[in-house]
Amino acid sequence: KNIEFIIFIRKLAHDRDFDRSYPELTNTIETRAHTSQAVTALLIITTMTSTSIPVIDISPLVNLTANPTHTNTTPNGARNVALRIAEACQTVGFFAITNHGVDPAVVNDAWSASRDFFALNSSIKSTVSMTEDYPYGYENYESLGIHRARNDGDHSNNSKDVLCVGEKYLTTNATSSTTTQKLAPDSKETFSIGPINPLKSQMPPRRFPPLASPSFSQHLSKYFEVMEKLARILFRGLALALQLEDPDWFLREGVFDDGHQCALRILNYPLLELDLAEMEINNVDLQRDPIIRAGAHTDYGAFTILKSGGPGLQLRLSRDSSEMEKCGEWINVPHLPDAFIINLGDLMQRWTNDRWKSTLHRVVAVFDEAQDEDTMTTTAASTTTKATTDEREKKKVYQSMQRQSIAFFVNMNGDAKIVPFDTCVDEDHPSTYEEILASKYLIQRHAQSMGQTAK
Predict the structure, then answer these.
(1) CA geometry: angle at 321 spanning 317 and 326, to 5°?
(2) Which of 15, 73, 221, 240 is 20 to 30 Å from 141 by CA-CA measure?
(3) What is the C-alpha separation between 346 and 326, in angstroms, rounded?
(4) Is 46 left (phi over 0), alpha (psi -120 to 50) or beta?
């Protein structure tokens, strides 16, 4: 795979002197690459040295949408993309897309609007909050994930992962040798909006904080609109990958039309600082027990389109993945600035009779590389009164970068009937799921995640 990407970079960078050793090669490319594609491809090379996710150029699907064929044939380029999507969905459940046709200005505007919103006072942000009656708005106390309990002396593979609410930081019980995770919320804040058509989608109308900038609603609404279009492009690729009779199968009336229940969520992971002395006292090993910023979970819907602002996203491969030796490890998803990350949701796994995978994933705090104690960043503890340097207590800290992301959750129409596709059912793989409405399934999954029983 690395060789294939090297050839790709050569075409992009037009490097005539290419017969060099690998480090020199990457150096040459870094200095001569003048396009964002070349830089992205170079990042792909450096991240593909270990298990990673497929990176798929979907320009043939974009062209297919822009110039739909009026015959029963589909261009070979689109079918080749579909084959790669099918392989990714069966093995990893994640893939990155490039050449997707999304205007960078739309992304940048939504990004800036999100950053400005999260910089506002909490009293302003929380004027539109998530409630039982309104599943969108501002939220800063969501708790999802895996809670781990382990004896300090037991670093074997015998420790258990127990699904529960919350996973964040390690503390030591003074009366025992057991180290546990606090049941604490994920270290992030979010704001969400739903579909534009409340009547047809049967979802509440959008609400925005009245004291937020007017551009906040404008830029988020535009981003939502663009993601809708991208979702339709990807649905054509999924239909081809599933060998359905029509590339527009998912886009039929009542399946995914203007009555869909998609949601857009902007996320902010604030700067984190860890006191080195406290880490040593509590025997904190960030490699063994990373700080969780979004607990381990799967998404509920069809699939998710993620725009990531930096590293930190991790996935755990399915047990029946071809790379069995990696199935129990958390794998870093590479940050590719010009790409979107696509991951399948639970509904799509059910729809495909478990052929495709909804993969467990989480976000961890990414800290600066470990430094020698002499060069560790030093910060002064804050004081309530003006004080001299001598009066301030200095401490050495690890810092985790602030991280933003924007997730677009692709959900079907609420009345869409979800029953395993015929192409995913045969004698060796009989259907294991009964028909269910998409909205009922989402309600059930949400209730399960909260430890409740759906009515």
Answers:
(1) 55
(2) 221
(3) 22
(4) alpha
